[in-house]
Amino acid sequence: MKMYLKINNGVIEDVKFKTFGCGSAIASSSMATELIKGKTIEEAMKLTNKAVADALDGLPPVKMHCSILAEQAIKSALLDYSKKHNVYIDGLEDIDFDEDHHHHDLDDH
User: Fold this and answer.
1) Fewer CB within a 10 Å sphere, N or C end of the chain?
2) What is the pTM of this model?
3) Of 29, 99, 26, 109, the residue nearest 62 (C-alpha)
4) What is the mean predicted confidence (pLDDT) over 8-22?
5) Which of 108, 96, 23, 105 lies closest to 66 in space, CA to CA?
């Protein structure tokens, strides 16, 4: 899951995503982009996987990791932006992007 952000004056003007996975992963990516478009960087940093799942009227427990991946993809894109533009974004230093969420492992339960 990858997110691409167009940011102008601290506002996310456009968001694109590329997701390879199940329908829940695609839906989570799409919903996450809609939830942050037009928002400030600070507002986007507050987006949680629960907000993504709630906006989708819920996800089955075995698919909740899809919303976690969407949240992480946004924050990863913001981290990339901060590095490329030498902009400090509060809260990114506390995020563990190496957290492992294997789609196939969860589907087997």
Assistant:
1) C
2) 0.84
3) 109
4) 95
5) 23
